[in-house]
Amino acid sequence: MTRTLTLTAPPEQVEHLGFFRFGDVGGKVVITNDAGEWTLLERPDFQALLVDTLAPEHPKRAELVDKGFLRDGADLNQIAERVARKRRFLGQGPHLHIVITTLRCNQSCKYCHASRTDMDRVDTDMSMETAKKVVDMAMQTTSPYVNFEYQGGEPTVRFDVIQFVVDYSREKNRYEGKTLEHALVTNLTYMTEDKAEWLLANDVLLCTSLDGPAVVHNFNRTWRKGGEAFDRVLHWIRYFNRRYVEMGRDPELWHVDALMTTTRKTLEHWREVIDLYVELGIRNIHLRPLNPFGFANKTWRAIGYTPQEYLDFYARALDYVLELNKQGVQIIEGTASTFLKKMLTPDDPNFVDLRNPVGSGTGQIAYNFDGNIYPSDEGRMIAATGDQLFKLGDVFTSTYDEVVNHPTVKALAVASSLDSLPSCHTCWNAPFCGVRPLHNYMQSGDLFGQRPNTPKCTEHLTIARLLMSKLANDPDVEPIFRRWTIHRPRHESS
Description:
Elements: E1 21-25, E2 28-32, E3 38-41, H1 43-51, H2 61-66, H3 76-86, E4 96-100, H4 128-138, E5 145-151, H5 159-176, E6 179-186, H6 193-201, E7 205-209, H7 214-220, H8 230-246, E8 257-259, H9 264-268, H10 270-279, E9 284-286, H11 297-303, H12 307-326, E10 332-333, H13 334-344, E11 364-367, E12 372-374, H14 377-383, E13 393-394, H15 400-404, H16 407-415, H17 437-444, H18 455-473, H19 477-484
Parallel strand pairs: 4-5, 4-11, 5-6, 6-7, 7-8, 8-9, 9-10
Antiparallel strand pairs: 1-2, 2-3, 11-12, 12-13
Helix pairs in contact: 4-5
């Protein structure tokens, strides 16, 4: 929650000030603005800033001018350019195109929200006709960068659909000239050597789920008919990473990415989770909480936790990741990396779930196996419950313009514009934050929700405070954090 700071005397004149929001971080005052600039001030210095008594020789004064917090001497044109650079994703169009090749899945994970079906349900497979229409639609995006991301179910069950989309999109791109990438989100348990070699030869990026050591992974992610998946997942991670090296690829860029989902079991084994990622050479561990919606009470008692329990876990895990970095181990925490790119660089990473406004429909589009179109995968999953509120159309009868200009896309943008949301518009964390209206809808039936009362608000504020405090109090942290913001596109290294 944002804390209110009591001022000894409100300023009578504010013409000397640039626009900023302010709040409390570790007993200091943080001030931020829409260019993503921020700094921490002692309380007396903040008071002096407000009433224009900050001495010309004050060590903070030049920084305050350069970042636009003080008007006198500030280059307003340059600051305007910084704001525009931070928000340049707004005019680009959807770059992430999620393709659901099938709903069939061979696993039954405890926390899965996807509308998975049994392995004999071929009626939930995407047809080649639908796949062609998906590519035709996606390649009309105004974004210069297009990423096809294959999901399911388990998407490799319909590997032929993946192959078709890769080949057909590349053929179309001979005329479109976009930067084109393909990413496969797979549990790796349906992988074969033939599939693996085709993926390697065609530069398809891989992301899998690895929740930790066997005791955690096998608890969370089970086969439909029983049994343990951990050893099979590790086999294929090692297989791909070895083959990348044999192909002469830079292992800093070419490796299997992995996502972990935090359950109660993770809280007991957090250190082993990180150690396993390091052992496997996975360079990025993206800590993320459970989506707390839709679980039966019995299931939530087995795998769930309170928001504070998760944040305590996150703080411990981040400290350990930083400790490893100080020892020379190259591993990034993904959530922190996203925040830090907003805090420490002139660009926004355009992470569709943590931007202003949200990327649903404007940064990403999801195509269900049947050709129905949704603003995100969450919209598709809501539709699986019988609620079609977020359907934007379909690839057979809708045009691209109808999809991206759909009233639902506009409503999601309005509902996630932090500049107009109560409490968000005055929050110091606004330049680094983002709202997901579909989460609000799942929680309360309302796109807008009550942001200060949501677990996501608490999570984002706590993580931002944690990162700023570390930057302010530990001089060894900033070089590490700045490394975490470096982005080298893989397509330039192949």
